[in-house]
Amino acid sequence: MNLLRGAALAMIVAGPVVVTEGRAAPPVSSGYVDASMFRALVDESQEIVEVNLEGAVLEALAKQKGEDPEDEQTSDLFGKLKAIHAVIGTVKGPASAAAALVRQTDQKLYDAGWQRVTRIKSETALISVLTHTAGGRIDGLVTLIFDSEDKELVFANLAGEIDITRLGEIGDRLKVPGLDQVPGAR
């Protein structure tokens, strides 16, 4: 499952206004998915990986200048993203509740027009990668993974204009392994 964890974090439901922890958050794009329902399932006494990058933080990454000639390309990549959110951890409570939420979210996104890029279902695990398009461009990527044996949950969402062929660059820049494993990424 550690391989899945790395792949999912690297691969980082659409709605008009999302309420998170008692405050209304404006949607960052139609490819945005609220992570709070997954965050609530994670056991605080276990190892957790949580990523919440949006607004000024992503703008700063886009404006970052360095001596590396690839900085300009990376700047272009982050300049088009609106948010990166991920939650990875061990689920508290019964595995069946988390498995049901992952299945329901996958189906809800699919029913809302998201395209399944990858879907793998076994006796103990579900893996789903979906993309959202608007105006002929990918503006959202969601990865959902749940393994009922070890109760490990992975949720990752990239929102904003996404060049799928350059996902590996996001992973390299943020030191997140596995983004280059998304179909079509390099």
**Approximate shape:** globular
> Quick check: average pLDDT?
77
**Whole-number radius of gyration?**
16 Å
Outline the low-pLDDT stretches. Answer: 1-28
Provide the structure class: alpha+beta
**Quaternary structure state of the chains depicted:** single chain
Report the order of strands and helices.
Answer: HEEHEHHEHEEEEH
- Separation of termini? 23 Å
DSSP E strands, number? 8
Strand content bin: 25-35%
Q: Counting H and I runs of at least 4 residues, what is the number of helices?
A: 6
Structural account:
The protein is an alpha+beta fold. It has one domain (2-181). Helix content is 30%, strand content 32%. It has six helices and eight strands, in the order H-E-E-H-E-H-H-E-H-E-E-E-E-H. A hairpin with a 4-residue loop joins strand 7 (137-147) and strand 8. The two termini are 23 Å apart.
Concise overview:
The chain has one domain (2-181). It has helices at residues 2-10, 36-39, 56-63, 71-80, 95-111, 167-173, and strands at 18-20, 23-25, 48-54, 81-90, 115-121, 125-134, 137-147, 152-160.
